[in-house]
Amino acid sequence: MNIASLVRENIRSLTPFSSARAEFKGEAEVFLDANESPYQTDYNRYPDPHQRELKGMIATAQGVKQEQIILGNGSDEIIDLIVRTFCEPKQDIVRYISPSFGMYKVVADINDIKCEEISLDTDFDLGVDLCLADQTAHHKVLFLCSPNNPTGNLLSSDRVKAVIDGWQGIVVIDEAYIEFADQDSMTTQLSQLENVIVLQTFSKAMGGAGLRLGMGFASSQIISYLVKVKPPYNVNNHTQAMAMSILKDVDLTQSRIAEARTERQKVVSALSNQTNVKKIYPSEANFLLIRFEKHKELYQYLMSHRVIIRDRSSQLNCAGCLRVTIGLPEENDRLIKLINQYYEEGTVHR
Ligand SMILES: Cc1ncc(COP(=O)(O)O)c(C=O)c1O
Known about the structure:
The chain is of the alpha/beta class. It is built from 13 helices and 11 strands.
């Protein structure tokens, strides 16, 4: 596939911003290049625009080369970079699955890119023919999400592969929740996937939502275009340092992932006995999509008891559904108790 031909012409010919520090290769002693304050703190200097040390650690952890990584201010920023790199406003088109994460459409709308929604089937799996139908040269980016938010399931990998093979533009596979799943990341197959960008994040299993750090993995060619478009200092010093300390503590992250998976099963088992729970969708993520009887009232009831969950009932094929994140064991216990209490009280008052 000719990736360069998918890139917007103004981006292909763009001369990106370059700082003196990024151009300098040795160990500098005096920094008089960037109009910073000279008074030493943890933050008086600009961060490394290439995030070399952090990317080195991520490359080792993921088994990819540094040139195959882009880091962003959350995956949200990388989603925006992808759209701005490949899609010409008012001309090009992005497709995204539905129901799924809302930012694909929001980013496309902000950038004035046309959107096409591809409905998942009743098991929330991918329809290969639907995804690939009626493609034109303007269909630049297809967003898939696996495990999918808000449904929690993995998309079938044979269907994802068929879609990657048949799609003539870029396929983004958002793996924000992959650490909670019984499946390897697509990054393990990156060398055979010339038109794929895999997204991951520090916001979920890595416990760093407040740091705002997203990761994109792709061929070095795709990454080189995205890097041209990104703001030079998009990942701050503190975030780079904290991300490295998270990466060093693999055992802690692994034990938290294991706990989330155990707790997920605990919540499923507890709520399976509740007759007002109509369906609990199978989840490979750190949340559950659940169809409830009187979901709106339950949602309000939980809020009145200071427990916030997410109402997803207006999303396609999600009527009556609420999404609950798996929290600490005692938080999950409180949720289960309140749900049971709500329906018991309802019975009494009926
Ligand atoms: C599927 C998916 N992708 C991306 C994100 C955003 O991640 P980040 O915090 O890295 O911007 C989320 C956040 O909820 C998500 O659910």
